[in-house]
Design brief:
The chain has about 110 residues and is an all-alpha fold. Helix content is about 75%, strand content about 0%.
């Protein structure tokens, strides 16, 4: 895996924090953490999108972020566990992994300006 895909995965990791923060932040420090997570998440996604196909980057970013958010809500915030949710997340992740596998990792020329 090259560093651009690593940026997408780290961006999705931080997306989970800011999405949860939008729902649960209630003070200065939790809102500050949410804003910092947004900045890191979008910065990394934008940097990866400069080298990789933007549509694929966005789909992987959103898919992983969605899966991570739902799983975090179940584990940390007592969201009801439903097998249908897990099956749909697995379907979503299958599509995300499929997109990753069929996308070439070649760097596009002229994007470093």
């Amino acid at each position: 895996m090259n560093t651009n895909w690593l940026k997408v995965f780290v961006a999705a990791f931080f997306e989970v924090f800011w999405v949860i923060g939008l729902k649960h932040a209630d003070g200065f420090w939790t809102w500050a953490g949410t804003v910092i997570s947004i900045l890191i998440s979008f910065y990394l996604m934008i940097m990866a999108g400069r080298k990789l196909p933007v549509g694929t980057v966005y789909a992987v970013f959103v898919g992983l972020g969605t899966a991570g958010t739902v799983i975090s809500e179940i584990i940390f915030f007592e969201e009801p566990f439903k097998i249908s949710k897990i099956l749909l997340i697995l379907l979503l992740l299958t599509g995300v992994i499929g997109l990753k596998l069929v996308t070439k990792d070649t760097v596009q020329e002229g994007t470093d300006s």
